[in-house]
Design a protein that fits this description.
This protein has 169 residues and is an alpha+beta fold. It has one domain (2-162). It contains four helices and seven strands. A hairpin with a 7-residue loop joins strand 1 (25-27) and strand 2 (35-37).
Length: 169
């Protein structure tokens, strides 16, 4: 189960990196952040926050193979890009922490504290940015992000994103 969580987290991080603005900055180390323009990253270096689609597909297909017989398992979580841009416009945010969490309707149905694996009816991600000192940064309203749409329930129905793997045009 831990391997599944790691693979799911990598897939979500890849998605969030793709949603970022072209001219955004990324820090390569948490302890001593050094801001660099994303366009300077080569996609094949070990320090890059990006993966080539072929490599990402190997990772995604491995995860999908591991859950192929259980249709209740998460394939992905979809985050609203405009909400993410709004949150990340605060330049004090140097990193984003993705925290696995139970959905409120799962908790309220009497399952608080009960393991759910990667059941799409139970799981979500709470997304919280933090600064170079390791302190959480909240929206001006004092919030962090959630509202991840679980796939296989809320998957795109058209376009290349309807595929479970990355499709190149």
């Amino acid at each position: 189960m831990t391997k599944k969580l790691v693979i799911a987290a990598v897939a979500v991080l890849t998605f969030i990196a793709a949603c970022s603005k072209k001219n955004a900055t990324v820090d390569t180390k948490i302890a001593k952040p050094g801001k660099q323009n994303l366009s300077t990253y080569a996609t094949t270096t070990i320090d890059s926050p990006f993966l080539l689609p072929d490599t990402a597909n190997i990772m995604i297909q491995s995860y999908l193979q591991s859950i192929k017989d259980d249709q209740t398992q998460l394939k992905s979580l979809i985050v609203d890009a405009n909400a993410l841009r709004y949150y990340l416009q605060n330049s004090d945010i140097t990193h984003v922490k993705l925290m696995f969490a139970h959905r409120m309707d799962y908790i309220e149905s009497g399952h608080a504290g009960q393991a759910a694996g990667l059941n799409y009816n139970a799981m979500t991600l709470v997304i919280a940015g933090f600064d170079e000192d390791g302190n959480y940064i909240y929206t001006p309203q004092g919030a962090v992000m959630d509202h991840c749409q679980p796939c296989p329930i809320d998957c795109p129905a058209a376009g290349t994103a309807a595929s479970d793997i990355l499709i190149m045009n």
